[in-house]
Amino acid sequence: MATKKEKETSKYYEAVGRRKTATARVRIKFSEGKKEIVVNDKNYTEYFKEKEHRDVLTSPFIKTGILAFSVSIKTSGGGLRAQAYASRHGLSRALVLANPESKSILKTLGFLTRDSRRKERKKPGLKGARRA
After folding, report:
1. Is the CB of residue 57 less than 8 Å from the CB of residue 84?
2. Residues near 49 by Cβ (< 8 Å), separated by ≥ 6?
3. Crossing angle for the helix pair 80-98 and 51-64, nearest 10 degrees?
4. Residue 74 and residue 58: Cα distance in Å, rounded?
5. Which of helix, strand or coil describes residue 5?
6. Is the dihedral of CA 76, 104, 108, 33 positive or negative?
7. What is the DSSP string of 58-118?
8. pLDDT tens digits, residue range 24-56?
């Protein structure tokens, strides 16, 4: 049977982030001294090859000053950029669940806002969504 201390250390915070058609299911577990981010069973530096995507992903931790954590992200849909922003949205929401004081920081940066913009559909009789 797990002791109370083991239950506290095994606790994780889960949230879902979305952007366009991309969805990211995020789990954060706070650990001592180590920083680990796994995206779709790969290290985040392997999954997101571009530096911009990696910076977007780690920005909630940098802005809130949290240095020790273990993150597991399952993402699908959209492109890599949309997946990075969806992951950032999910991370921010999970951080607010874990630490409500960080909400004001993340809200002013716009990390808690879901970007609902999507591609507009093509209309009948036109060559594109709006082009005649």
Report:
1. yes
2. none
3. 10
4. 16
5. helix
6. negative
7. HHHHHHHT---EEEEEEEESS-HHHHHHHHHHHHHHHHHHH-GGGHHHHHHHTTTS-B---
8. 999 999 887 788 999 999 999 999 999 999 999
